[in-house]
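2024-03-11 09:14:02 INFO worker-7 job=invfold-0412 stage=load source=structure_tokens
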């Protein structure tokens, strides 16, 4: 076990900063305890590792286990948002001004691990969150490795080669259709090239990811928001986000991607942060239709 302490330069919210890394309430690779401390299990370039993070008067205390433990501790400041600069954001709307004030401790996490964010983002393509979370949970439970250290029942995601070797019937059991599973397999086969995107600029990283058939702007943005802490990576092609942004900033329903980008123009360079802050306000447009039902292809 190794330890490290990181002291943030100002207000800091550990839960808000790292919460976007959780893939549903039952994520085997992410757990938040009742005291607010966080466990993460990751497959690093050095191997599997587990890190436990807790807030203290001195900052954020970290303990890590496993072959990848030292790598996780070395990258701790980036994970917690040290490279992020919230002061670069200037609110230009009353709602955003209030959200920025209320959530002054929010920073954009940077995991430095592309495949870790890419695969669950692919699983989330064109399905409900519940379907994607279930698939991620089942795949890690069946094909992942036990997380090092004392974290109970946590799992580290499979290595790239193992993802590429999962047979078709195992994808089916997890409720993943052929299109998404094929995209994950293609990505796993070029994993070293995709991991290089963690050190690239946002446009170059997005272009690198989208060279893989099946990965488009939506998936690359969702990935880079987490792996690179990209403050301007706007999620395009999302069913709900444009409507939420449009309603929050104008009170008008039915905004599309073009309208959302127009509204976010004053925040060029910080558009993802603006979206995060709006989502934290909890002001979605009122629903006029029932939720999409969860599909389950496992019985087909």
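2024-03-11 09:14:09 INFO worker-7 stage=emit residues=300
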């Amino acid at each position: 076990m190794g330890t490290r302490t990181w002291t943030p330069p100002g207000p800091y919210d550990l839960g808000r900063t790292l919460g976007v890394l959780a893939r549903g309430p039952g994520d085997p690779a992410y757990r938040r305890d009742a005291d607010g401390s966080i466990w993460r299990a990751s497959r690093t370039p050095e191997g599997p590792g587990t890190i436990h993070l807790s807030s203290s008067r001195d900052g954020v205390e970290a303990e890590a286990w496993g072959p990848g433990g030292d790598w996780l501790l070395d990258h701790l400041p980036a994970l917690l948002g040290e490279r992020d600069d919230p002061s670069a954001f200037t609110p230009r709307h009353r709602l955003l001004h209030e959200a920025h004030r209320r959530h002054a401790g929010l920073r954009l996490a940077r995991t430095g691990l592309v495949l870790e964010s890419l695969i669950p983002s692919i699983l989330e393509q064109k399905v409900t969150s519940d379907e994607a979370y279930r698939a991620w949970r089942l795949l890690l439970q069946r094909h992942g490795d036990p997380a090092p250290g004392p974290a109970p029942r946590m799992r580290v995601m499979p290595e790239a080669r193992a993802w590429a070797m999962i047979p078709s019937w195992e994808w089916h059991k997890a409720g993943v259709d052929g299109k998404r599973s094929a995209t994950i397999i293609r990505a796993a086969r070029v994993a070293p090239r995709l991991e290089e995107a963690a050190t690239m600029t946002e446009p170059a990283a997005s272009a690198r990811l989208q060279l893989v058939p099946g990965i488009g702007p939506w998936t690359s943005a969702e990935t880079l928001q987490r792996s690179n802490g990209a403050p301007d990576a706007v999620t395009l092609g999302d069913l709900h986000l444009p409507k939420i942004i449009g309603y929050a900033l104008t009170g008008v329903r039915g905004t599309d991607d073009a309208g959302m980008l127009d509204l976010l123009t004053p925040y060029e360079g910080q558009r993802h942060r603006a979206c995060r802050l709006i989502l934290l306000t909890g002001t979605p447009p009122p629903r006029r239709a029932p939720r999409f039902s969860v599909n389950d292809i496992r019985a087909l």
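2024-03-11 09:14:09 INFO worker-7 stage=report msg="The first strand starts at residue 2 and ends at 6."
2024-03-11 09:14:10 INFO worker-7 job finished
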